[in-house]
Specification:
Helix content is about 75%, strand content about 0%. It has 16 helices and two strands.
Length: about 350
């Protein structure tokens, strides 16, 4: 097993891809006269969307959660696939809510298939979240129930975070505090990006609740750091690598921590100018650059970077502590430490 997280991702990716192909949704009645239409309007586009999922960080973290407590990674495959399917549903629905144009370098699903059809595909992916766990013949009924209950809680947290993110934008709210942002991003991103993948993997691997909970806490720290780095990359990352998505958070008026912190610290005139840029849907490079300049002047860029680095360091501290107590393996400790660095040092 690789001792670096990027290496571990590469090693475990085939397991995830094979499992995804096995659970691809199909018509309930394969003999129906509507089979071809169901494929066109539901199953084929959703399968294509899910197949373009990149590194599969979330399901691979599920496998790591199982291996961290001494179990085979295959024990956590259905839980990992469930989270990946939830990710597909969330992205499909997010793109509609945000009126985005591109996803993974391709037109968003609602752009190519229509909003109603895309919503329905996302809903199917949500249904599959629970189906794949219920149909896992390798898990006993008690473990399945625990996983299903936790998956439902994970989804609930994510929807709470999404409600705040969308609601603040709808109501033109700029009185958001750093604490508000942290609650929102923990709910919307950290739970399903790292905390629950590690926790569910440990539960599937037969760990006790207290051991699984230690991995969950590690995942919260890592998940917030992951999102902070995402926010930074959108503002000051590689423009060529991101293409049209670069600085889209400004165009969309996102309440990121960098923005919120800057608004808390800028003078009235600069604060008003930044809010004006964030509410105008600007796309001109000069306007986008000015917004970033104001965010930096308010300390938002540096504050965001500092908190991401602190989150990575806390992730490493917690992982080392868990290994010293015999809660997780030392191999898992090394991978979690590498994961923390990967989350805050990645360029895309």
């Amino acid at each position: 097993m690789s001792n670096t997280f990027p290496g571990y991702l590469k090693e475990r990716l085939p397991l995830v891809e094979q499992a995804l192909s096995r659970v691809a949704a199909a018509p309930l009645d394969g003999t129906s006269c509507a089979t071809a239409d169901l494929s066109r309007y539901l199953y084929a586009p959703l399968a294509h969307f899910t197949s373009g999922g990149g590194k599969r960080v979330r399901p691979v973290l599920c496998l790591l959660g199982a291996e961290a407590v001494g179990a085979a990674p295959e024990r956590a495959l259905s839980a990992g696939i469930a989270i990946e399917l939830f990710q597909s549903a969330a992205l499909i629905h997010d793109d509609i809510a945000d009126e985005s144009e591109l996803r993974r370098g391709e037109p968003c699903l609602y752009v190519t298939e229509g909003t109603g059809v895309a919503i329905n595909m996302g809903d199917l992916a949500l249904t599959q979240v629970f189906e794949v766990v219920m149909e896992d013949a390798t898990l006993d009924a008690t473990t399945k129930l625990s996983l299903l209950r936790s998956l439902a809680t994970m989804e609930h947290h994510t929807l709470e975070g999404q409600a705040l993110d969308l609601g603040w934008a709808r109501d033109g709210r700029w009185d958001i505090t750093s604490a508000d942002y942290t609650f929102m991003v923990t709910s919307k991103t950290a739970y399903y990006t790292a905390a629950y993948p590690l926790y569910l993997g440990a539960i599937a691997g037969g760990a006790s609740e207290d051991v699984a909970r230690e991995l969950y806490v590690i995942g919260i720290e890592a998940g917030v750091a992951f999102q902070l780095q995402d926010d930074l990359l959108n503002l000051v990352g590689d423009a060529d690598a991101q293409g049209k998505d670069f600085r889209s958070d400004i165009t969309e008026g996102k309440r990121t921590l960098a923005v919120v912190h800057a608004l808390e610290n800028l003078g009235n005139a600069e604060r008003d100018e930044l809010v004006s840029l964030l509410t105008a849907g600007v796309t001109a490079p000069d306007d986008l650059a000015r917004a970033v300049e104001l965010i930096a002047a308010g300390g938002g860029i540096e504050h965001c970077r500092s908190l991401a680095e602190k989150g990575a360091e806390e992730t490493k501290r917690l992982a080392a502590e868990a290994a010293e107590k015999g809660r997780i393996t030392f191999e898992a400790r090394d991978l979690l430490c590498s994961m923390a660095d990967f989350f805050v040092e990645r360029a895309a």
